[in-house]
Amino acid sequence: xxxxxxxxxxxxxxxxxxxxxxxxxxxxxxxxxxxxxxxxxxxxxxxxxxxxxxxxxxxxxxxxxxxxxxxxxxxxxxxxxxxxxxxxxxxxxxxxxxxxxxxxxxxxxxxxxxxxxxxxxxxxxxxxxxxxxxxxxxxxxxxxxxxxxxxxxxxxxxxxxxxxxxxxxxxxxxxxxxxxxxxxxxxxx
Length: 189
Known about the structure:
Layout: H1 2-22, H2 27-51, E1 55-59, E2 63-68, E3 72-75, E4 81-88, E5 91-98, H3 110-125, E6 131-135, E7 138-147, E8 150-159, E9 162-169, H4 177-185, E10 187-188
Antiparallel strand pairs: 1-2, 2-10, 3-4, 4-5, 5-9, 6-7, 7-8, 8-9
């Protein structure tokens, strides 16, 4: 079984490369398929990187997330949210699912409140303009900023009618293999 785990990521990359080569036949088909093939290769590379990350799964009644070996968890849950902060040195991953309906007439649902959270973060931390991104089969809002000397990206979105907030931090958090593996490992319940 461990041999299969060892070679599966390599096999995925080989299949992705073979898929790109098979699209070279027709120019029109190649134009449409090239994007798909490059996305497949990128996804395969991320899968290869994530498969190298070892750790334990942190479980709550709202989500699960991989905690890589050497990272420390701190339960931040309270009456209003199920939350965890995972750190290693100057790097961090924080995940929260809000429990209480924090909604008001100005923010009547999880999507509106998620946008408010990111807009508020952007204003307070002088973050980048809000972007809308697709993650976990849902729309999330995103901003990037530096707070307390730490470069961070914050996402908030409506997943299953609940507000989800994800914060990644660290000098190179966007390219950190362990942070990417944690993000990719999140499963909502």
